[in-house]
Amino acid sequence: MSLKAYENIELNITVVCFLRTVWCGLQFLSFHFQFLKQYEFFDDTTIKEGKTLSGIYTYKIYRVKSKMPWILQKLLPDEAFEIHEESWNAYPYCKTILT
In what residue span(s) does the Phosphatidylinositol transfer protein N-terminal domain sit (predicted)? Predict the structure, then answer.
């Protein structure tokens, strides 16, 4: 295995640990997510302006309705309790968008 492969694995582990810390801090200990896409990208300039990078793109949907107060669950539609995450990981750069 090459050094670049190890660096990508290290980055993914770091991102997972960070997200676990953030979500646990918000008390989202058990939530459901749907892993929709994952693929490698090559020669992309969307992560860092002026740099052409390669890495892994992932798209996930987190469903957090069961963790919200009862009144919000009744008032809001199901789509309001979905968090969409798009992530571009190109060591040492990472870009994540939550919507």
Answer: 41-99
Alpha-carbon torsion angle 20, 23, 27, 29, nearest 10 = -50
pTM, to two decimals: 0.62
Strand partners, 33: 62
- pLDDT band, residue 90 (cuts 50/70/90): confident
The full set of domain ranges for the chain reads: 3-98
